[in-house]
From TrEMBL:
This is Glycosyltransferase involved in cell wall biosynthesis. It comes from Nocardioides massiliensis. Gene3D superfamilies: Glycogen Phosphorylase B. Residues 31-56 are annotated as: Disordered.
Length: 378
């Protein structure tokens, strides 16, 4: 079911929603750009997490206090909407949370961002968590038709498909669009063709070491090509395991001048937008996964995306695909995707006007969903 099929009931009250977590950029962008007058949605702020004061603003919700059944038993809300943050929760704890919400006569909504957790080495725990949440939810939301089909296949449930909203602020999107347009009018690229491989802190879902030889070969064949690899400091400082192996390979490639290696701590939002704007294409090195906020940020600033065939990235947005799963990797498909990106640059950004319109549609779809649930309870 898509957002176009959702009824638009006229709610006559403000609906209070406990969104987990409220501070995440995805959740913040489920609301209209301009706050409406009542009636509408009022999202509860994340309860403070002890010791989180020094974190970035969008990380101060971790671990979510709202997942504590004691909080769910006492807080004032109409709808409990779970998105992220239950990675380490025991399924029995989630079952207790569900019983608490249901026992109060409140509605539970679950947005299935991940059908395979990118932080878990194997899928067993996350599958058990989903086996609690998906059957129990009063309503399910997901981001793509592919994910909705998997939910239908695995649990016999129908999920509302609502696309991922923008990630980058509108002002930064406009600035990136103006920069790309200036380059287009100049007729020639203002800089080298830059391919980005961002390994972050090396999530379990990532396998950049597997891709690196192919990317080096593909980018080397492009006149003026540059392969930029960004790694967090914790990866490069590792002394054992996958991180240490990757750090060694990256240092050797940098020493041979095959890559431009950039090592840093977590980027601020502004630093991240600057980095993405400086790329022509970003390669997602995932061997499993479902959806990607990184992909959406690239779209916002007009950076093309090369995405693996695992998950539903190609359903999420236009990408150049290459074959990569836990069990399979086709170097030729990755090499062709790089050259396809080079032939087709610059990518076309979604644009702030379209993103603003989309966000209003997403906000209306969520309000309609919440109102339906509250009316049904009444």
């Amino acid at each position: 079911m898509s957002i176009a099929e959702v009824a638009r009931p006229q709610s006559h009250r403000t609906i209070t929603v406990a969104s987990v977590p409220a501070g995440h950029v995805y959740v913040r962008h489920l609301d209209p750009v301009e706050p409406p007058g009542p009636p509408g949605v009022r999202r509860l702020p994340d309860p403070p997490v002890p010791g989180s004061e020094d974190r970035a603003a969008d990380q101060r919700w971790w671990p979510p206090v709202m997942l504590d059944p004691r909080w769910a038993a006492e807080a004032d809300y109409d709808v409990f909407h779970l998105h992220f943050g239950f990675d380490a929760r025991d399924p029995e704890d989630l079952a207790e949370l569900v019983r608490t919400i249901q026992g109060r006569g409140k509605s539970l909504v679950y947005t299935a961002h991940d059908l395979r957790n990118p932080h878990h080495r194997d899928r067993e725990l996350h599958d058990r968590q989903l086996d609690v949440l998906v059957p129990a939810a009063d309503a399910l939301v997901t981001l793509t038709t592919g994910a909705a089909a998997e939910i239908e296949r695995r649990w016999g449930r129908t999920a509302l498909v609502v696309p991922h909203p923008h990630v980058v602020p509108f002002a930064r999107m406009r600035a990136a669009q103006a920069m790309r347009e200036a380059q287009r009018r100049a007729g020639t690229p203002a800089r080298a063709f830059r391919v980005g491989l961002h390994v972050k802190s090396l999530r379990e879902s990532m396998d950049p070491e597997r891709l690196l030889p192919t990317l080096i070969r593909a980018v080397d064949a492009i006149p003026g090509g540059e392969l930029v690899v960004n790694a967090h400091t914790d990866v490069m400082a590792a002394t054992e395991g996958r991180r240490a192996s990757l750090a060694r390979v990256l240092r050797e490639a940098a020493a041979r001048e095959q890559i431009t290696l950039q090592v840093h701590d977590y980027y601020s939002d502004d630093e991240l937008w600057d980095y993405l704007c400086g790329l022509d294409v970003s390669v997602l090195p995932y061997r499993f996964g479902t959806h990607s906020g990184w992909l959406e940020a690239c779209r916002d600033v007009g950076t093309a995306v090369i995405a693996p065939t695992c998950g539903y990235y190609a359903d999420q947005a236009p990408v150049m695909s290459y074959t990569h799963t836990e069990d399979d990797f086709d170097p030729a498909s990755l090499e062709e995707a790089v050259h396809q990106a080079h032939r087709g640059r610059p990518a076309t950004p979604v644009g702030p006007v379209a993103r603003r319109r989309q966000r209003e549609e997403i906000a209306a779809a969520h309000l309609a969903l919440y109102a339906d649930l509250v009316d049904a309870r009444s």
